[in-house]
Amino acid sequence: MTPELNRIYLGDNLATMKTWPDAFVHTCVTSPPYFALRDYGTASWEGGDASCAHSVGGQVPDGKAPGAISAGVRPGVDASKCRKCGAKRIDQQIGLEATPEAYVARLVELFREVRRVLRDDGTLWLNLGDSYNAYNGNRGTESEYAGKRNAMEPAFPAGHGLMAKGLKPKDLIGIPWMVALALRADGWYLRCDIIWAKKNCMPESVTDRPTKAHEYIFLLSKSEKYFYDAEAIKEAITESSIARVAQNDGRPVLNTDRKRDSTQAEQTLDIAAMVPADGRRNKRSVWNVALKPFNEAHFATFPPDLISPCVLAGAPRGGVVLDPFMGAGTTALVAATHDRQYIGCELNPEYKSIADARVANESAQEKML
Using one digit for the tens of pLDDT, what is the confidence trace for 39-68? Predict the structure, then answer.
């Protein structure tokens, strides 16, 4: 099937992409649901007692109507049926697998399909956050979204923590690197680990480790050689860097504890090469991007400034940008803003409506300018 571009498809992303042809996407920019973080409310029930407030192993949250999806989904618990009435739970969402290994395996399968629909020179920009073992069932630390928290329940009810087999309580699981290395083993080229430094990260109620203020974006490619527009995302050289070069007449600042065992000619650098005429340098691997509040009923939204470099470097004008976890539609919005085409999938119909409206509203505003 030839898919329609500039469209978000509703439904399971793996099944949807299997209907698409090979090698038509330039780049994929996406952020899957993080492991064991929260239930995105995409499940349905089949059979059982229609009046039952279904649960699969945890508490039924206050205010849940009969038949609503329980927040009691958690790793290590059989989530296939209601523990009360036996109704079958049908859910295609990723992130609530029983183990980290099962989560990684599902993502490897999904991104194998992404690799198929990518052009041979295509890239994948993958944002992932980590999880801790013995998760305490709170709603996360992103309290700037506190007013929207009812939109998505936590993956575990209070008092029911994640205990992954083989890990100690309080262990950082290492999910991002588990996924990245598994994708590399599956055939992807792992090209760069980018640090998303959150300039306005929220405080955490922890006293025995630093507050988490970063996430990873992995740049992976389908082939050894691939499309990457370095010019499009060059960044300004800082004034301090220029001053440092000028002060030393082009020579690098040496550690005074280090012995000068090379010649002056070897120590001298080309100032012009270090400070190009346009005052821009190759983009670094640490991206300082602030979180942005979002007023709709979606908790985890990309800041547009975070993914603009991915879109600009990963696809030429008119190229196709894929996001199989479209969520609130930021990837589509950024792609459209930068004269790229987009295509994506979203399992939750409410989020698809939000994403469609965002892109439509942005397009309407651009036409008025």
Answer: 766 767 888 888 887 766 544 443 443 333
